[in-house]
Amino acid sequence: MNVKERICISGLGYIGLPTAALLANCGYTVHGIDVVPSVVETINRGEIHIVEPDLDAFVHAAVHSGYLKASVKPAEADVFIIAVPTPFHSDLSPDISYVLSASRAISPFLKPGNLVILESTSPVGTTEKVKAEIEKAGVDTASIFFAYCPERVLPGHVMKELIENDRIVGGLDESSTQKVAAFYRTFVKGAVLETNARTAEMCKLTENASRDVSIAFANELSMICDDLSINVWELIQLANKHPRVNILRPGTGVGGHCIAVDPWFIVSKSPEKAKIIRQAREVNNFKTQWVVEKIISTCLRFRIDHQKKPKVACFGLAFKPDIDDLRESPAIEVVEKLLIEKIDCMVVEPNVETHSHFTLVSAEEAISKADIIVLLVAHKSFKKMIFPSNKPLLDFVGLPY
Fold first, then answer.
1. Dihedral sign, CA of 25, 26, 27, 29?
2. pLDDT > 80? residue 3
3. CA nearest 352: which of 344, 340, 360?
């Protein structure tokens, strides 16, 4: 495949934009699509709207070299990549409307020989629905190649892992698998593993569900240890000295657009059999409510002891340390529920400048004014702080460990 061939990427978020910038820096001409005009304008200035190490340099170089341009509308290309969100409905069923909308949008620009690649994390069978949606638009798909290739990157390390991590490519037929795998091998240093579309879709969901189950064990353990007056962080450190034990770290819950969402895609397809997967989701969701109850209980004790309402400083809003991604964040849920209970909260989040619902304050102001300090996210900057010993400290992330 000629590196000068054109790429059209739908969705310029946490995966689409890094992918677009990477491909542009590899010599591909990339046309990126996003439905938010301000995002398009930001990218076309060579700037970024999300926090990710090294992404700013990649985007700046890609835009100023002329290889990356953003727009609100698709354009003709040789390779079409769909990297839009796949949330779930209120009943926990998958919402693939963004994927289907992106499929319809690119339909007028498709021609024989094109590759259509779905990267959005999706329930099994979605790649087939992408093809069907394009056919509904009147496109002859006989000579178009369809495949699923999920991202497998860690926020904070995306630019490195897009290149170095192994990738899974699953086509709707063997020729699609081979064509799309050949495309990824032009810029991926890791192994490009070939399978079919349904297996590739399920593999992505399985990876995240497996993590969710492991985190659920840690979160459940943390609540049991609290009942038994055991330091769960010390316990896990000791247990992990066993050569075949690797207990993960408990936290405020589970957030993000992957681990907190993807297991429900499996449950929706096989609700009677996905018992452990469902239970893990419920445990991790309950952990967040348990955190809220612990904070409220501490506030009540403070009010009884001091005859006044306490000020609570909540440290962290992101769904994991050292990123600005707030999607499905359990920390946000905690703060929202505290506010519903009329708890006087201050919020510290060093990776976000503003928030639509919360007024953010500096860590120094929060420590100075707070009566109770709550650690919800283990940001590196928090680890360097010295918290006063004369104020209640609720650490749900094991900051010193």
1. negative
2. no
3. 360
Report the chain's mean pLDDT, rounded to a whole number. 95
329 burial class (0-12, 13-18, 19+ CB within 10 angstroms)? Answer: buried
DSSP 64-113: HTTSEEEESS----SEEEE-----B-TTS-B--HHHHHHHHHHGGG--TT
CA atoms within 13 A on the CB side of 103: 26
Cα 298 to the chain's mean position, in Å? 31
Q: Domain residues of the chain, as ranges?
A: 6-190, 211-395
What's the one-letter identity of residue 278?
A: R
Cα distance between residue 30 and residue 16, in whole Å: 11
Catalytically annotated residues: 204, 258
**pLDDT tops 80 at residue 2:** no
Residue 1 confidence class, pLDDT cut points 50, 70, 90: very low
Query: Fold for domain 211-395?
Result: Rossmann fold (3.40.50)
Where does 6-190 sit in CATH, by number? 3.40.50.720
Q: Indicate the range of 86-90, 103-107, 300-304 predicted with least confidence.
A: 86-90
- For residue 9, the cross-strand partners are 32, 81
Report if pTM > 0.70: yes
Q: Extract the tokens encoding 114.
A: 């094109």
What local confidence, expressed as pLDDT, does residue 228 receive? Answer: 98
Summarize the confidence of residues 100-118 as an average pLDDT: 98
Residue with tokens 């989701």: 281
Going by C-alpha positions, the residue among 107, 24, 110, 26 that lies closest to residue 70 is: 24
Mean pLDDT of 353-357: 87
Residue 359: predicted pLDDT = 87
Q: What is the 3-state secondary structure (H, E, C) of 267-316?
A: HHHCCCCCHHHHHHHHHHHHHHHHHHHHHHHHHHHHHHHHCCCCEEEEEC
